[in-house]
Design a protein that fits this description.
single chain; alpha+beta; 3 helices; 4 strands; 34% strand
Amino acid sequence: MHEIDFSKAKQEGMGFQFPGDFEITAVGPSSANLPVRVPQLLERAGLRVLHESVRHRHSAAGNFVSVTVSFHCEMREQYDAAHVALRADPDIRYTM
Protein backbone atom coordinates (compact mmCIF):
# COMPACT_ATOMS: atom_id res chain seq x y z
CA MET A 1 0.00 0.00 0.00
CA HIS A 2 1.28 3.48 -0.88
CA GLU A 3 1.48 5.90 2.05
CA ILE A 4 0.82 9.61 1.56
CA ASP A 5 3.28 12.07 3.06
CA PHE A 6 0.80 14.81 4.02
CA SER A 7 3.47 17.39 4.81
CA LYS A 8 4.95 16.92 1.34
CA ALA A 9 1.48 16.98 -0.25
CA LYS A 10 0.74 20.26 1.50
CA GLN A 11 4.03 21.75 0.27
CA GLU A 12 3.25 20.62 -3.28
CA GLY A 13 -0.24 22.18 -3.15
CA MET A 14 -2.22 18.93 -3.03
CA GLY A 15 -5.30 18.52 -0.86
CA PHE A 16 -7.66 21.49 -0.66
CA GLN A 17 -7.32 23.73 -3.70
CA PHE A 18 -8.44 27.35 -3.47
CA PRO A 19 -10.47 28.96 -4.83
CA GLY A 20 -13.08 26.23 -4.98
CA ASP A 21 -16.43 24.86 -3.91
CA PHE A 22 -16.54 22.88 -0.67
CA GLU A 23 -19.11 20.96 1.33
CA ILE A 24 -19.84 21.19 5.03
CA THR A 25 -22.22 19.16 7.17
CA ALA A 26 -23.75 20.36 10.43
CA VAL A 27 -25.64 18.13 12.86
CA GLY A 28 -28.13 19.19 15.50
CA PRO A 29 -31.63 18.62 16.88
CA SER A 30 -34.45 18.22 14.37
CA SER A 31 -36.40 20.98 16.12
CA ALA A 32 -33.73 23.62 15.36
CA ASN A 33 -34.75 24.31 11.72
CA LEU A 34 -31.17 23.70 10.57
CA PRO A 35 -31.97 23.19 6.86
CA VAL A 36 -32.91 26.89 6.81
CA ARG A 37 -30.45 28.18 9.42
CA VAL A 38 -27.21 26.56 8.22
CA PRO A 39 -27.17 28.38 4.86
CA GLN A 40 -28.08 31.63 6.65
CA LEU A 41 -25.22 31.21 9.13
CA LEU A 42 -22.76 30.60 6.31
CA GLU A 43 -23.97 33.67 4.42
CA ARG A 44 -23.63 35.79 7.57
CA ALA A 45 -20.03 34.58 7.74
CA GLY A 46 -19.50 36.10 4.28
CA LEU A 47 -19.59 32.90 2.24
CA ARG A 48 -21.31 32.36 -1.08
CA VAL A 49 -23.71 29.47 -0.48
CA LEU A 50 -24.71 27.25 -3.38
CA HIS A 51 -28.38 27.02 -2.39
CA GLU A 52 -29.22 24.31 -4.90
CA SER A 53 -26.82 22.00 -3.00
CA VAL A 54 -28.61 22.14 0.37
CA ARG A 55 -29.77 18.72 1.51
CA HIS A 56 -30.70 17.22 4.84
CA ARG A 57 -31.32 13.85 6.44
CA HIS A 58 -33.02 12.94 9.70
CA SER A 59 -31.62 10.38 12.11
CA ALA A 60 -33.34 7.00 12.43
CA ALA A 61 -35.30 8.12 15.49
CA GLY A 62 -35.95 11.58 14.02
CA ASN A 63 -34.34 13.44 16.90
CA PHE A 64 -31.43 14.85 14.89
CA VAL A 65 -30.85 16.20 11.42
CA SER A 66 -27.69 16.52 9.35
CA VAL A 67 -27.56 19.38 6.87
CA THR A 68 -25.03 19.41 4.05
CA VAL A 69 -24.33 22.60 2.10
CA SER A 70 -21.82 23.52 -0.60
CA PHE A 71 -20.22 26.94 -0.58
CA HIS A 72 -17.49 28.80 -2.44
CA CYS A 73 -14.20 29.81 -0.84
CA GLU A 74 -11.49 32.00 -2.27
CA MET A 75 -9.02 31.06 0.48
CA ARG A 76 -8.48 28.58 3.33
CA GLU A 77 -9.44 31.15 5.97
CA GLN A 78 -12.99 31.25 4.57
CA TYR A 79 -13.28 27.46 4.83
CA ASP A 80 -12.13 27.62 8.45
CA ALA A 81 -14.57 30.50 9.11
CA ALA A 82 -17.46 28.30 7.93
CA HIS A 83 -16.72 25.73 10.64
CA VAL A 84 -16.24 28.44 13.27
CA ALA A 85 -19.54 30.14 12.37
CA LEU A 86 -21.53 26.92 12.54
CA ARG A 87 -19.89 25.64 15.72
CA ALA A 88 -20.70 28.93 17.43
CA ASP A 89 -24.42 28.19 17.12
CA PRO A 90 -25.65 26.45 20.29
CA ASP A 91 -27.97 24.14 18.33
CA ILE A 92 -25.20 22.71 16.17
CA ARG A 93 -23.58 19.72 17.87
CA TYR A 94 -20.72 19.28 15.39
CA THR A 95 -19.56 19.95 11.84
CA MET A 96 -17.63 17.90 9.35
